[in-house]
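dumping this here so i dont lose it
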């Protein structure tokens, strides 16, 4: 991923990929899993999906931000009508992060200093993702 300062990442993009876990789980289950490990196939799907769309590094930055900023309203990332509270979402994000980026050191606040989550529609994500515009500091 290019090195940018003040990277802005769309919360809609983060929600989109988290829904690969939080929403997709309930396509075949009535309750959340007993163990995080049960999410593994969905995490692998989410990783492939994000990788295919060129979003994996931005998703990593967003997760680092979320894991180091306890003032975030994590329930905003719960997928809407599903029974996840803030602690559940933090646990899911941590599991995803440790699964996909298991070879990296633990997340520290320094990793996310230049990241900002912004409320911009996911439809605005596509031109920036391809870096086809003159404003590459925003990843929506």
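and the seq i came up w/
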């Amino acid at each position: 991923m290019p090195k940018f300062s003040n990277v802005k990442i769309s919360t809609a993009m983060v929600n989109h990929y988290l829904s690969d876990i939080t929403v997709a789980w309930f396509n075949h289950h009535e309750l959340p899993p007993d163990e995080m490990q049960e999410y593994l196939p969905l995490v692998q799907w989410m990783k492939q999906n994000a990788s295919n769309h060129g979003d994996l590094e931005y998703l990593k930055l967003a997760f680092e931000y979320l894991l180091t900023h306890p003032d975030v309203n994590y329930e905003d990332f719960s997928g809407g009508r599903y029974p996840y509270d803030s602690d559940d979402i933090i646990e899911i994000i941590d599991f995803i992060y440790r699964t996909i980026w298991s070879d990296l050191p633990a997340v520290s606040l320094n990793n996310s200093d230049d990241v900002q989550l912004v409320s911009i529609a996911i439809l605005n994500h596509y031109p920036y993702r391809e870096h086809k515009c003159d404003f590459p500091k925003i990843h929506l």
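The chain has a mean pLDDT of 80.
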